[in-house]
Amino acid sequence: MSLSSGIPKFRVAICGAGIGGLFAGRDIHIDLYEAHDGITTAGAGISVMGRTMQIMEELGLYEEISRVSTKPPSYGPKLRKSDVPEGGFEWFQKSSSHRGQLILHFADGSTAPTDMLVGADGIRSSIRHYIDPSWTGTLVYRTVFPAEKLFKMDPNNVALKNSIFFCGKGKHIVSYPVSQGTQINITAYVSDDQKAGTHFEGRWVSDVSLEEVEKAYEDFEPGVKSLLKCSENPSRWALHVVNELPLSTCDRVALIGDASHAMTPHFGAGASQAMEDAFVLGRLLAHPLTTLDNVPAALKVYQDVRLPFAQFVARESERTGYMFDFRLPGYYDGTERSNEREEMDILKERLTGQWGWERERECGGVAQWLQAERQLQESAPEVSTYLL
Ligand SMILES: Cc1cc2nc3c(=O)[nH]c(=O)nc-3n(C[C@H](O)[C@H](O)[C@H](O)COP(=O)(O)OP(=O)(O)OC[C@H]3O[C@@H](n4cnc5c(N)ncnc54)[C@H](O)[C@@H]3O)c2cc1C
Predict the structure, then answer these.
(1) CATH number of the domain that 56 lies in?
(2) Does residue 245 surpass a pLDDT of 80?
(3) pLDDT higher than threshold 90 for residue 55
(4) Where residue 204 sits, what CATH number does that domain have?
(5) Closest C-alpha among 121, 85, 82, 116 to residue 99
(6) Is 133's C-beta closer than 6 angstroms to any atom of ligand 1?
(7) Does 282 lie in the same domain as 222?
């Protein structure tokens, strides 16, 4: 499928119509290529961070999106210690807070010319094809089901009205209401450190039985068991990431989103980071100072501003996942002991500090664009070198 929009200042091709690719097309004229025949959703809802909402407001998208989205409760999600069969307890509540044309060659034998290429083709990017993604050793069970189903089975279940993290040793479950509270979205993680970095045999995403999901959490508290019993069409995802790349651009080719920095979902920030890449790159490409001749200089600015930041988010996301399931070295490791609560309090302090970057407006998506624009203006001598 190829979608074209408007008359380009120069020709930009984007491969991949995921959230990153679609967002990049917001500010610039593009040829958008997508491997699938249509654009569909991947089943479950995603969370979007406040800093990315700023970008949506800047692009005039916020109102439209907020009409169909579910706002998280202002008081933030609850975290429970749940691997306690006789009943867990609430741990804490998190506050909210050279310059010939490029020719694209497609698998069906067709070709298309372009002046520059954006690889928005996800974790299995063929534009980044020489570096394989890496398995984290984590399996993720995902399901969405009607909230009514849980209400009938367990009317007082804490997951009906709250965002909840059910935490246990080596595994945790994230549950939150979506579709204006009519559905519940579950993402359940089981990690094996010994398998991290090994090759995952089989399909990355497959349908699984309810029994498999229930078995994985058989040592969790009763509320979790009724929650999981409501699962509909559960799927299992082998969680892969793209390890830190030294570059996200080369000449007139740039990678954005998962193609560049697919990360663990523990911050719920992968799509947000894809949108932030797309926003900064789109604005740079649409800038009056950017011409076909200086595209590589503009892409270097994009790389300097975005790559280290997205990689920082990826690292901290991984660390946050270790905290959710008591695997962070030097902290509470999930085993029963007399001073368990004290150790959990220390871990809680560490964990609540993990979102500090998200609240710093000076490093928000719009601020990063302004930084990129300054850098583009400062690179004017380099820009004229390209023009020579
Ligand atoms: C379990 C789980 C939970 C998550 N939860 C969240 C969350 O709550 N919040 C959040 O922000 N993020 C979340 N993420 C991450 C988020 O889904 C991704 O980071 C985001 O979708 C990446 O967007 P993208 O556009 O870069 O890539 P993708 O969404 O993978 O899109 C890539 C597109 O490129 C197409 N494509 C592939 N190859 C080609 C080709 N050769 N030519 C043309 N098209 C091609 C694909 O068909 C696809 O449409 C989660 C991820 C997982 C695994």
Answers:
(1) 3.50.50.60
(2) yes
(3) no
(4) 3.30.9.30
(5) 116
(6) no
(7) no
User: What is the band of 359 on the pLDDT scale with cuts at 50, 70, 90?
Assistant: confident
The answer to the question of residue 256 being in a domain is yes
Q: Assess whether pLDDT exceeds 60 at residue 326.
A: yes
Which residue of 2, 23, 34 sits with most ligand 1 atoms within 8 Å of its CB, as the best mutation to test the pocket?
34
> Is the confidence at residue 387, as pLDDT, over 50?
no
Please spell the DSSP secondary structure of 213-275, one letter per residue: HHHHTTTS-HHHHHHHHT--S-EEEEEEE-PPPS-SEETTEEE-THHHH---STTS-HHHHHH
Burial of 38 (0-12, 13-18, 19+ CB in 10 A): exposed
How many whole angstroms from 22 Cα to the centroid of ligand 1? 11
Nearest alpha-carbon partner for 49 in 27, 72, 67: 72
Residues in the chain: 388
Q: Is 204 close to ligand 1, i.e. is its CB under 6 Å away?
A: no
Flag whether 93 is in a domain: no
pTM of the prediction? 0.86
Instruction: Assess if residue 220 is contained within a domain.
Output: yes
Looking at the fold, whether 224 and 292 belong to one and the same domain comes out as: no
Task: State whether 234 and 262 are in the same domain.
Answer: no
> Distance between CA atoms of 52 and 232, rounded to whole angstroms?
30
What are the tens digits of pLDDT across the range 179-223? 989 999 999 999 999 999 999 999 999 999 999 999 999 999 999
- Residue 382: the pLDDT is 54
CA dist 52 and 348 (Å) reads 26
Say yes or no: 256 and 360 in one domain: yes
Same domain, 253 and 127: yes
pLDDT tens readout for residues 117-169: 999 999 999 999 778 999 999 999 999 999 999 999 999 999 999 999 999 99
Phi and psi, residue 229, nearest 5° = -60, -25
For 120, the 3-state DSSP assignment is coil
Mean pLDDT over residues 96-123, rounded?
Answer: 86
**Ligand 1 atom at minimum distance from 121 CA:** 34
- Ligand 1 atom at minimum distance from 271 CA: 11
Domain count, the chain: 2
Residue 211 lies in a domain: yes
The answer on 298 and 352 residing in a single domain is yes
Look up residue 289 and give its amino acid.
L
- Tell whether 251 and 305 lie within a shared domain: yes
Kindly state whether residues 286 and 358 are assigned to the same domain: yes
Which structural domain, as residue segments, surrounds residue 167? Answer: 134-241
